[in-house]
Every structure is written in structure tokens, then in C-alpha cells.
Design brief:
Length: about 675
């Protein structure tokens, strides 16, 4: 990376480039350069979710196998997958088994609730080790190479015990922050505070995004460089319009936004409105799929995913419609992701498994990021424009034959149908679920930017040109300029005022438990963590401090037979389903791991305080004393949801049903 080599000293680098252009590979290359020039002894890659972290972990392992070890005494590199379910990741578990052979009598400090698989004497590669001493939640970040959720980085800005240890762990690494557009005002407040400390420590940082608003680019640069940066440089950063774009911030405050050449990969997408009606959707897909093809339908809520899938199965058959969303137990969710990649991934990986007839995947926002999947046609609910562009990144993502000749003839032109709104009102009215998730301001600004394309009145008609139009669309949507028809402006002004108030409240709330800004060198840290939150770790309670989310419940799901015996869920892959579970003794480690892999976060209905309290009370009736011992590290302290023989139950006034095909369905009990 020429920009990295040209910097006089490692600092902050913000890389903005289209989806699928190899930003992650570029970031790892920059990390090597930055580490060599700064003396950093490791790297942290921070991602939005556990799923994206799991996907990144094997990529880091492959990278490390190719990175030469230039230390005076080369040896094993300690590696950590940093999230609460890391022990369920097969790649990480293999490293843990390798490390357990070399350390004896060393206790971890993660507490009784931490999952720590039993020692395993089987052989494993010796070059990379998840070192046992580093597996405690307080010491884990001291590992040289870490892949984890963004929370692990944001905890650096949270008043909490052992905070100095976390700062020490990060001070010697290169930090890579992926999907920087995915965070709201609350999380960005923590991220900016963390960047100010990383800048003061001269820690090299690489930030990646396909769709970063210019104002946010300036905030990142200012947070890292602090008072050292000149206002004129910050203005230049905010006004930089090139794309792809690399912005470098050196520790002395010098800032340089630099447009770079694109790869040459381009796609033109035809944009079109579609009425939000299942009958209309079914008729349109029947026409489009007359010659076969693979369609991705993205809904903003899981309830809309399930409703849409049920309707489309009535038209196209159960075998031709599948779903993907976050309301699956962990094992099924991982299988779903693997199946999507197997069938709809790059041509070299999916050639034998890609459906040859018609197939429709109905997905929630889980399809937006970190999945290299490719479809012939996209239908999407209206959402913020940067997220819509992420979804479009799954459309004609790869070349299939000359001029896409291996795709069905009717689908060789990339097309995106935008639905999820009443297009007959002025301005369009998004469906209620979308408003609850994204709020009116972002949705109306998105609709206004899309209007030129959806109406065909823009300079290129209905065509969005990628990558040329990515940055202008994002900057218009997140800027302060007027967008959209004049008839929309009153409603948009009200939405903007409400959004400004909401963001101010988020900013104020985020300040409550934040450490103060980095001060001058030598300034004492007295009172640094006074009135803090205690321990900070990647648990439900810990994440709630750095994310503006309601408290939610996570349960482990099992099945209860009519004879009173509990079993693992039916239908689990690799012969893990229907296995009997002892309730009078600690399950064998393999059984415990399977049950732990059936973790499920209950949906929004159970975040309502009255419902939450009632649900906890009912779930505690499934308490199993034998599972609470220190030997039951997979299950101790967990809430157990027991389904009947039909995989149904009632909880806190709601009927629940679980299937491996559709996940968890929730309806209010009559």
C-alpha cells in the first residue's frame, strides 16, 4: 500500500472502497507495514457482530501463516477470538486444544460463567496457539493477535475495573476497525473517545468502510489527531469527494485525503419501485423467474422475513424458498451461513451447488455484510442508503460468463426492486417495522436520494453506477443539503429535528460511563474509573454499556419429551440432534457444548420490562441444580428454554415455535 509506505510515521488510515474490492486484505497489508515501522507486536481486528468475527477469524489465521516472524526469538503467536461464544468456534477450539498441552496448573480468571472447554491432548499445529493463560476475560486481550467484536475495542473507553490492563493490551497493537459505517451515534461517541487515546499512544489504526459519510470521516480524523490537526485540513477531509479514497492522519496532525484508482470492476444497477404487497411481489417474481434464477429478498424485520417466506412458498414450493436471519440457535445460524456461501458464493466455490432452477432467499439485514454471496435479482425494503448499497453489493457480485451469460437471460441486467413503503404518499411512508429500527430521518433522506433513480429522472435514468455513484449517494443522504421534492420538505424537516434530539440524547447517555479524554503527557489518571460499571466483558451486561440497546435475554434451547427426558434439538447437523441430556448429573463435555451451541437471543418482545421480568421468572423454573457445578462450564448460570415434542412452548404470554428451517416464530398468545 503506497499510502502506508509514504507516511512518515504510522497513524490513522481510513480506507473507503466498494464492496468486494479487497479492503480486508488491504488492511492486513497495511497492518504489516505499520507494525514494522512502529514496533507493534500484534493486531486487533474489530467487527460489528460475532458472526462477522467468526468469518474473519480463519482469514486472520491464514494471514498469520504467511507473515514472517522477525522477532529476535521467533516462536508461537498467541491468538484470541474475542467474544462470549468464542469457545464454540471450531477454529478457535482447535487452537485452545493445542495450547492446553503446554500449560499446567494455571487458572484463568474469567469467572464461573466463562466457557472453558476441557483440556484435550490431541495434536494441533504448533505455530498458532490460543494460550491458556491468556484465555481469561481480563487477560485475553493481551494475546498478540485478536479478532473480536467492536465492543472489545469500545470497552477501552468505558470506566471499568482493570481498564489499565485493556489499555496496555491495545497500546502494542495495530488496530483494524471494519464496517465503520455500521455504528450509531452512541457507539461512535465511544469509538471517538477510544481513538483519542489510541492517537495519544501512537497506536496505528486502520478504518474500513464502503459507505462512510464525509462528516464521519472528519470526526474520525479529528478524534485521532486531536488538537494537532489544522481546521483547514479537517475541512479538506470533509470535502474530499474521490472514491475509492484513502485518508491518512499522521501523529503530528498532518492529514491527506488521497483518491486512488478503482479496480476497474463496475456494475450498473437498474432501480425500480415495487408496491409493498405480497401478491404484487409474488406476481413479479413469477415473471422474473420464468427462466430460472436466484433472488435475494431483504426485509428489515424478522417478522416480515417469515411472513414473506410463507407466502412465497405457497407459490414456488417449500424447496425453492429459504430464509436467513438472526433468530436461529447458533449451530443452525452457522449452518445457514455456510449453506448460503456453498450455494450462492463465488463461482469457483458454488458452481456445483448453485440452484439450476428457481430459488428465493428471504433474509433480514444479516445478508448485508461479510457474506460473499451473489444473486441474479435483488428485492429490498427501503432502508438507509448506505445499507441499501451494501445489499446491492450482493447483486451480480461476481462475473458469471461473458457479459453474465451464465445467468438466466431475463436476469443478465442487474436490477434492484425497492419496496417496504407506501409510494403513493408524499413523502413515501416506510412500513412501521423499518421506522422502529432506522427512524424516519434516515429513511426519508434515503428515499429522497433514491427518488431520481426510482423515477428515472436522473442523468442516467434508472441506473445506479457502481462504484461512481456510491460516494455521492452516501454524502447526499447524510449531508445537510436539501434533497427530494419540495412537497417532502416539511415532513423531512420534522424528522430531522426529531433525529437531532435523538442523537443529542444518545451522545449525552454515552458520556455517563466514558473515561475522560486523553490529556497531556504526564497528566495523572486520578479518578479515571471512579463511579464506573465494574467489570466490562462481552456479556449481555457488558455490551449494554457500549451499545444503545434494550436489555435482551439469551437462552439455551432444548426439547422436553412427553416422558420428561430432555434432549438436544431435533434436526441439528452432524448427528447432534435428539441426544438425551442428563438432568441429575453434569452432561459430558460434548453434550454440554452442543447445548451451549443452541443459544438464542429472544426478540424485541422480550425486551419490554414487564415481559422481560415475567420471562426470567418462568425460565428460572427450568433450573437444573446438577448443571450449576464448576465442572459444568458450558451450562452453569444459563437460562434454559424447554420446547415440547412439537418444538413449541409458551413464555410470558407469547407462543414460541422453533424449526431449523425458519428459526424462532413468536406470536402473542390468545
Amino acid at each position: 500500500m503506497q499510502s502506508a509506505r509514504s507516511m512518515s510515521a504510522p497513524g490513522l488510515m481510513v480506507i473507503e472502497a466498494p464492496m468486494g474490492e479487497g479492503k480486508t486484505e488491504a488492511a492486513l497489508a497495511v497492518a504489516e507495514i505499520f507494525a514494522a515501522r512502529s514496533g507493534a507486536g500484534g493486531c486487533l481486528v474489530a467487527l460489528p457482530t460475532m458472526a462477522t468475527g467468526n468469518a474473519m477469524f480463519p482469514r486472520m489465521l491464514d494471514w498469520l501463516k504467511c507473515v514472517p516472524d522477525l522477532r529476535p526469538q521467533p516462536g508461537r503467536r498467541s491468538v484470541l477470538l474475542a467474544h462470549s461464544k468464542a469457545a464454540l468456534n471450531d477454529d478457535y477450539a482447535a487452537l485452545v486444544r493445542a495450547g492446553s498441552r503446554d500449560v499446567r496448573g494455571v487458572d484463568t480468571d474469567g469467572g464461573s460463567g466463562e466457557w472453558r472447554p476441557a483440556a484435550d491432548q490431541s495434536a494441533a499445529p504448533a505455530e498458532l496457539v490460543a494460550h491458556q493463560w491468556l484465555r481469561g476475560r481480563k487477560k485475553g486481550m493481551l494475546s498478540s493477535f485478536v479478532v473480536g467484536t467492536i465492543d472489545q475495542l469500545l470497552f477501552m473507553g468505558l470506566k471499568s475495573r482493570h481498564l489499565a490492563l485493556r489499555h496496555l493490551a491495545l497500546a502494542g497493537k495495530v488496530v483494524v476497525i471494519d464496517e465503520a459505517h455500521a455504528y450509531d451515534t452512541y457507539m461512535n461517541s465511544y469509538l471517538d473517545r477510544v481513538l483519542s487515546w489510541l492517537g495519544s499512544y501512537r497506536v496505528p489504526v486502520v478504518v474500513l468502510s464502503a459507505t462512510l459519510p464525509a462528516a464521519r470521516r472528519r470526526e474520525l480524523a479529528e478524534a485521532y489527531a486531536g488538537d494537532a490537526c489544522a481546521e483547514t485540513d479537517l475541512v479538506a477531509v470533509a470535502q474530499a469527494l474521490g472514491y475509492p479514497l484513502i485518508t491518512t492522519v499522521e501523529p503530528d496532525g498532518r492529514i491527506a485525503p488521497e483518491p486512488v484508482a478503482a479496480s476497474g470492476r463496475a456494475i450498473h444497477v437498474h432501480m425500480e419501485r415495487l408496491r409493498d404487497d405480497l401478491t404484487v411481489l409474488g406476481e413479479r417474481l413469477t415473471q422474473e423467474l420464468a427462466g430460472g434464477g436466484c433472488v435475494l429478498v431483504v426485509r428489515n424485520t424478522v417478522d416480515r422475513v417469515l411472513e414473506t417466506a410463507a407466502f412465497l412458498r405457497g407459490l414456488f414450493g417449500n424447496e425453492n424458498v429459504s430464509v436467513a436471519h438472526a433468530r436461529f440457535v447458533d449451530i443452525d445460524r452457522a449452518d445457514k451461513d455456510s449453506d448460503l456461501l456453498r450455494r450462492f458464493g463465488p463461482p469457483e466455490k458454488s458452481r456445483q451447488h448453485r440452484p439450476t432452477g428457481r430459488h428465493i432467499v428471504v433474509a433480514s439485514s444479516v445478508a448485508e455484510q461479510s457474506l460473499d454471496i451473489d444473486f441474479d435479482l435483488l428485492v429490498s425494503d427501503l432502508c438507509p442508503v448506505d445499507l441499501l448499497l451494501q445489499r446491492i453489493g450482493r447483486l451480480h457480485r461476481h462475473v458469471r460468463g461473458n457479459d453474465q451469460s451464465h445467468r438466466p437471460e431475463k436476469l443478465r441486467t442487474a436490477r434492484c426492486l425497492v419496496t417496504g413503503a407506501d409510494w403513493d404518499t408524499l413523502p413515501p411512508k416506510p412500513v412501521r417495522g423499518s421506522t422502529l429500527i432506522y427512524r424516519d430521518h434516515a429513511l426519508l433522506r434515503s428515499a429522497a436520494v433514491l427518488e431520481l433513480f426510482l423515477s428515472g429522472t436522473g442523468p442516467h435514468g434508472h441506473t445506479v453506477r457502481l462504484p461512481e455513484d456510491i460516494s455521492p449517494m452516501v454524502q447526499d443522504a447524510y449531508g445537510n443539503g436539501t434533497v427530494g421534492p419540495s412537497q417532502w420538505q416539511d415532513a423531512m424537516a420534522k424528522a430531522a429535528a426529531a433525529q437531532e434530539l435523538h442523537e443529542a440524547r444518545q451522545e449525552e447517555a454515552a458520556q455517563y460511563f466514558q473515561i475522560r479524554e486523553a490529556g497531556r503527557a504526564g497528566r495523572p489518571l486520578l479518578g479515571w474509573v471512579d463511579a464506573g460499571v465494574g467489570d466490562a466483558d462481552d456479556t449481555r451486561r457488558g455490551r449494554a454499556q457500549v451499545r444503545d440497546t434494550r436489555e435482551t435475554l439469551e437462552v439455551l434451547v432444548v426439547q422436553g419429551r412427553a416422558d420428561g427426558v430432555w434432549t438436544t434439538l431435533p434436526g441439528l447437523s452432524e448427528k447432534r440432534g435428539g441426544l438425551e441430556l442428563p438432568t441429575d448429573a453434569v452432561p459430558q463435555p460434548r453434550l454440554g457444548r452442543i447445548v451451549a451451541g443452541c443459544g438464542l437471543r429472544l426478540p424485541y418482545q422480550f425486551s419490554i420490562p414487564q415481559v422481560l421480568d415475567r420471562a426470567i421468572e418462568e425460565l428460572e423454573r427450568n433450573y437444573v441444580p446438577a448443571w450449576q457445578s464448576k465442572d459444568s462450564y458450558w451450562l452453569a448460570g444459563e437460562l434454559i428454554l424447554v420446547l415440547d415434542e412439537n418444538c413449541r412452548t409458551r413464555l410470558a404470554g407469547y407462543d414460541l415455535r422453533y424449526t431449523s428451517t425458519d428459526g424462532l416464530e413468536v406470536t402473542r398468545a390468545e
